[in-house]
Amino acid sequence: MKLLAAAATLIALSVAPSAILAASSSKSPEANEAGETHFASDRNLKSSKSKSPKKTKSTKAGKSTSPPPTPTPGEMKKFFNFVPGGRRMLEEVSDSQERLVEIVSDLGGNLEGKFDIKEDLLSSQERASLREHADSELMDALKAADKEEEHDIQEDFRFEVSPSKLASLIDVDSIGSMRKAFKDYASDFPVTRVIIRRTSLTGNKHIQYHNDGDTSVMHVWLNEEDTVDGGNLVYLNKDGATWVQTKPGSAALHKDKIVHGITPVNGTRYILILLGDNRFDSDVLKSI
Fold first, then answer.
1. In angstroms, rounded to a whole number, what is the distance separating the alpha carbons of residues 216 and 230?
2. Which residues does 168 contact at the CB level (< 8 Å), separation at least 6?
3. What is the per-residue pLDDT across 8-57, written as a single tens digit (0 to 9) for each?
4. How confident is the model at residue 97 (pLDDT cuts 50, 70, 90)?
5. Cα separation, 183 vs 134, whole angstroms
């Protein structure tokens, strides 16, 4: 099967692989607590127990009128993790349409799923501001961490950004542009969470193919050109395997359980992530 090239050229910085994932494993997939599906062998970070969230008021349509609860450190570790051995990732799905369909089916994905690309959402100065903030938060986290946790934090660090903090780091108009792009793509999803993910990796670690469940996701790449090797999103759907080679300040958006992975990463990679959960009415960026 022919590997499709993405129409827009971006420079990826989120969470994905450059060879193929061990999706060819014979182990059966399982779902994490967020409803996302992956193979049991993919987990490599310990998760901490968290208290059950308090019940929130709901509208007649069944949606909560309250914002989603702030994630605990354990919940922040539910993101899919980078794992070694992604050399066959692209080759496997490009050689066989049958194998691609099998992977999507095994992972509970949607062959009809689509993704979108939005360009020029953040300026170079804004990207630098967000990277500096991520580095500062990382230093604080390392100071507070136990010795045995330092390596995991240094390698893959993610944290939530409040709307007010985001507005202090980048232009309000840029926040509006990102929210508009998100809503144009997924009008029924409010932006319920904003997260920055900083990964510093060597050894061709990648993120295996998975789907993000019933959420809408926007990845905005914060790196500059040629500052990280790899880390491109690869989407699998009825059109084949599409490798999105990303550009600074641009974004990829996806929903509808489209299966995707991230190619091996070497270097330090920064990404701003907007998450949408239509179980909630509250949009954290609406009031900015």
1. 23
2. none
3. 433 333 333 333 333 333 333 443 333 333 332 232 222 333 344 444 44
4. confident
5. 26
The sign one gets for the Cα dihedral 4, 8, 10, 14 is negative
Q: What share of the chain is helix, strand, coil (3-state, %, to 5)?
A: 25, 30, 45
Which of the four pLDDT bands, split at 50, 70 and 90, describes residue 196? very high
Answer yes or no: are the C-beta atoms of 17 and 86 closer than 8 Å.
Answer: yes
What contacts 24+ positions apart, CB below 8 Å, involve 36-43? 36/78, 36/80, 36/210, 36/211, 36/212, 36/213, 37/107, 37/108, 37/109, 37/210, 37/211, 37/213, 38/80, 38/107, 38/208, 38/209, 38/210, 39/208, 42/80, 42/81, 42/83, 42/208, 42/210, 43/81
Please tell me what DSSP assigns to residue 35: S
CA angle 274, 6, 95 (to 5 degrees): 115
Q: Is the pTM of this model over 0.85?
A: no
